[in-house]
Amino acid sequence: MSRVSDAGGFDGFAGVYAHCPDLFKGFMFRYGLLWSHSRLEPVLKDLVRLKSANINRCRY
Predict the structure, then answer these.
(1) Which InterPro entries match (predicted)?
(2) What is the spatial distance between Cα 13 and Cα 6, in angstroms, rounded to a whole number?
(3) 6 domain-assigned
């Protein structure tokens, strides 16, 4: 069971951020920059995502 309920019709972390739309918007902007303007190869980016999800016990 989640400690913070989802909001705004979003699942997972986006639903938690939906409680504060300005924070969510800022996060998504910076997240987009991180993954779209990177020198890392796309395959390496996916491996980073998978490793991070595994470490945090999240489903990918």
Answers:
(1) AhpD-like
(2) 8
(3) no
